[in-house]
Amino acid sequence: MLLSKVFRGARDYCVRIRIKTERSDALLAIIGGSGLTQLSTLESLRREVSRTPYGEPSGALTFGRLAGREVVFLARHGYGHTIPPHRVNYRANLWALKAAGAKSIVSVASVGGIRQDCVPGALIVPNQILDYTWGRAQTFFDDIDKRARHIDFTWPYDEGMRRRILAVADKTGVAMIDGAVYATMQGPRLETAAEVDRIERDGADVVGMTGMPEAALAREIELPYAAINVVANYAAGREASARGVRFESVEQVLQEAMLRVRGVLTHLCQQ
User: Fold this and answer.
1) In Å, how far from its chain's centre is CA 37?
2) Prediction pTM value
3) Could you read off the pLDDT of 109-128 as tens digits, one per residue?
4) Where are the domains positioned within the chain?
5) Which CATH superfamily is domain 6-269 in?
6) What are phi and psi of 61, to 5 degrees?
7) Which H or E element spans position 217?
């Protein structure tokens, strides 16, 4: 067992604000990225402020009901989108969700498209990760005890969760690409065209800034984790971004795509 002993006292450590209500054993956590700093379809019940051994999460946890199911939502970059990707406290975020009773996580994140079919507006359920980040706190295991600990990370996303998302999308008629390699860059700047060329040679299909260490931390604390990537723009040097990324078009793409993401999440909660 990985961190089960550590989490026995986790609920006592976290500071709760407002009255608790009964939680389902299948509490789903949703982490929203750029374009999804709030979940408008969520029937909000309460917010809880958590403090963890790793500091404060990106914001208060929002508990509510989606299609009748209780979920917990967290805005990765803060509810005002004020936290850049390299400064997100990933350990605190994952710890707080686990301590709150989450049993699985769906992460939503915007990406740049590299592969030919990863066009702006496309929705993708990635199946692999490349990690180019540095200087981020990558593990819970560096201060738990003196023993070396390892996790299997051959397939970084939970296949059962991936299949559930894809099945819901298919059932509801939402086009969603099955499988892509997500390259996690440090940020907060976007990539150069040469960097995109390099990561494409490495096998990347899309590029973002938040996939790691989030996925690895979820694996360490045994939370099934899958992601929905929204292609916001072509990656640097590609197609319409050949001479630069046009930010004015990104917001419109995200607004439309997130409507489809919210629909998928709603139907996922009905399963």
Assistant:
1) 12
2) 0.88
3) 999 999 999 999 999 999 99
4) 6-269
5) Nucleoside phosphorylase domain (3.40.50.1580)
6) -80, 130
7) helix 214-220
